[in-house]
Amino acid sequence: MIFKRFKGIRIEREQWLKSIPVRVVEDYTEDDNGIVTILVELEYRGLIGKIIKAISITPPPKYKRIVLDKIGSVVWKMCDGKHTVEDIIKKLMSITGLSRRNVELAVYHYIKTLVMKGLIELKIPEK
Q1: Does 95 reside within a domain?
Q2: Strand partners, 36
Q3: What is the predicted pLDDT for the residue at 41?
Q4: Left if phi > 0, otherwise alpha if psi is -120 to 50, otherwise beta: which for 118?
Q5: Residue 86: domain span
Q6: DSSP 3-state percent helix, strand, coil across the chain (nearest 5)
Q7: Using CA atoms, how far apart are residues 117 and 102, in angstroms rounded to an integer?
């Protein structure tokens, strides 16, 4: 089962920990410090898109840059289809020294945000 967007879908904690996040957007760069910058193509649709195109003197930008912090970059690089959410949590616990509960909550919200923005998909194992 693959979820592209969270829309009121509830899964058990054990399933979530075994889930595998996979990047949908592969256009990103990494600097010497390990900081990731994601390039996301912008879509101008509907009425707002027509208005932006009509009133713009210069063409609207085609891409948006999202610069992640150090921890976000670690999570992003681990969303490669090989690591589970559990693996990501363990890695961040070793990096930060925070408790499992704190790291698990932070990872949950971060991954949920990435899924809702369409940057990753979550492969959830069957029960």
Answers
A1: yes
A2: 30
A3: 84
A4: left
A5: 2-39+69-123
A6: 45, 20, 40
A7: 23
Q: Output the pTM of the full model.
A: 0.81
Report the C-alpha gap between 15 and 65 in whole angstroms: 32
- Write the DSSP string, 35-87: -EEEEEE----HHHHHHHHHH-SSPPPSEEEEE--HHHHHHHHHTBTT--HHH
91: region left, alpha or beta (phi > 0 left; psi from -120 to 50 alpha): alpha
Domain annotation covers residue 59: no
Tell me the percentage of the chain whose pLDDT exceeds 70.
Answer: 93
Asked, for residue 32, whether it belongs to a domain, the answer is yes
Distance, CA of 17 to CA of 125 (rounded, Å): 10
Would residue 115 count as lying in a domain? yes
Q: Count how many domains the chain has.
A: 1
| Span 28-77, pLDDT tens digits | 999 999 999 999 987 777 787 777 777 877 777 788 899 999 999 999 99
Query: Could you tell me which residues are beta bridge partners of residue 39?
Result: 65
